[in-house]
């Protein structure tokens, strides 16, 4: 399995860490090779080179010791380019290959690529033994772009923590993610400004890195700087604490795969306000286990937040339903079982051809 360094920042690192923590690596005999790391350009280049060398060493083993399956976690741009080359090497060595797509902007990446790159992307998808999409919407897009691809839908997994009662602070809204326009952070600050007089206790806690200075400037312009708290990067232990304190989780993104932060908030039993983009509608039913708003619509976002800020019972109902959804559909054991089923099917195909 190839991907970013476990324990690093971002959704893919979290996904990989959970797969290892919850037993997939031990159950399936997975050797994990990091091909990306956080840090400077030199650190990233070093991780890519080390990953390539380790991958080549694995593929050069004798037939009996060579991996049967190469499973890569990929996104867009450089991530796709690196992983597509490694997949090609794996196929040349006789491996079955799994392309696991996480990129929230993979459609935009394809649209912005030239004809040759588009052909290479299509070739990579269609030559992969299995393509894993995080949602039915992403699966539909991939099947339309690469009709010959064998696409399976397997969502991200998330652990279900014990519920901590009585810690939520009324009015506290939690945002977790990269602080950038794609995540809808500026609309969220504007929504807080619209609601400040009606809900004097309102507070926006921002966990993540990115355009914090620009967000701070916008909050000052809207006279809500005193209602915005910057948490910086939030590790796993701090994330659990911040989720416990939050009355509402909000992620008004313009594009997503299937955000881990949202799934973790649902698992923690939090009422959520999110946008119906990417794979989110596979997990969130508007009014059933969360509230969906159109991306970029500040008025709709403010209305949804007001609905929850003013009704503790509604927050509790949606939070309970959100947690139940995770337990039934996204709990780690369920997702790991589905990945194992893909591996088993590929092993059977190898055995049937006498390989």
UniProtKB/TrEMBL annotation:
<keyword id="KW-0808">Transferase</keyword>
<dbReference type="InterPro" id="IPR028098">
    <property type="entry name" value="Glyco_trans_4-like_N"/>
</dbReference>
<feature type="domain" description="Glycosyltransferase subfamily 4-like N-terminal">
    <location>
        <begin position="26"/>
        <end position="156"/>
    </location>
</feature>
<comment type="similarity">
    <text>Belongs to the glycosyltransferase group 1 family. Glycosyltransferase 4 subfamily.</text>
</comment>
<feature type="domain" description="Glycosyl transferase family 1">
    <location>
        <begin position="170"/>
        <end position="324"/>
    </location>
</feature>
<keyword id="KW-0328">Glycosyltransferase</keyword>
<dbReference type="Pfam" id="PF00534">
    <property type="entry name" value="Glycos_transf_1"/>
</dbReference>
<protein>
    <submittedName>
        <fullName>Glycosyltransferase family 4 protein</fullName>
    </submittedName>
</protein>
<dbReference type="Pfam" id="PF13579">
    <property type="entry name" value="Glyco_trans_4_4"/>
</dbReference>
<dbReference type="InterPro" id="IPR001296">
    <property type="entry name" value="Glyco_trans_1"/>
</dbReference>
<dbReference type="GO" id="GO:0016757">
    <property type="term" value="F:glycosyltransferase activity"/>
</dbReference>
């Amino acid at each position: 399995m190839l991907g970013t360094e476990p324990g690093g920042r971002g959704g893919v690192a979290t996904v990989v860490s959970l797969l290892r923590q919850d037993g997939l690596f031990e159950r399936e005999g997975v050797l994990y090779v990091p091909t990306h790391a956080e840090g400077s350009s030199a650190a990233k280049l070093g991780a890519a080179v080390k990953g390539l060398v380790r991958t080549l060493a694995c593929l050069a083993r004798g037939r009996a010791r060579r991996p049967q399956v190469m499973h890569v976690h990929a996104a867009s741009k450089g991530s796709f380019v690196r992983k597509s080359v490694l997949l090609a090497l794996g196929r040349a060595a006789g491996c079955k290959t799994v392309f696991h797509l996480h990129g929230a902007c993979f459609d935009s990446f394809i649209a912005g690529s030239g004809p040759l790159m588009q052909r290479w992307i299509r070739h990579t998808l269609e030559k992969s033994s299995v393509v894993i999409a995080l949602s039915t919407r992403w699966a539909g897009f991939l099947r339309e772009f690469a009709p010959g691809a064998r696409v399976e839908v397997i969502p991200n997994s998330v652990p279900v923590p014990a519920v901590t009662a009585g810690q939520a602070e009324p009015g506290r809204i939690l945002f977790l993610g990269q602080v950038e326009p794609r995540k809808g952070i500026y609309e969220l600050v504007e929504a807080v400004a619209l609601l400040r007089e009606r809900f004097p206790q309102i507070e926006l806690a921002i966990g993540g890195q990115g355009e914090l200075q620009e967000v701070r400037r916008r909050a000052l312009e809207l006279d809500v700087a005193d209602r915005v708290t910057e948490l910086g990067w939030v590790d796993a232990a701090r994330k659990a604490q911040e989720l416990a304190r939050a009355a509402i989780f909000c992620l008004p993104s313009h594009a997503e795969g299937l955000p881990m932060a949202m799934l973790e908030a649902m698992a923690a039993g939090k009422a959520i306000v999110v946008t119906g983009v990417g794979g989110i509608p596979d997990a969130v039913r508007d009014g059933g286990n969360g509230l969906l708003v159109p991306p970029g619509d500040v008025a709709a976002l403010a209305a949804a937040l007001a609905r929850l800020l003013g009704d503790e019972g509604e927050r509790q109902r949606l939070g309970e339903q959100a947690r139940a959804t995770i337990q039934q559909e996204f709990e780690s054991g369920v997702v790991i079982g589905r990945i194992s089923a893909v591996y088993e099917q590929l092993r059977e195909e190898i055995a049937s051809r006498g390989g």
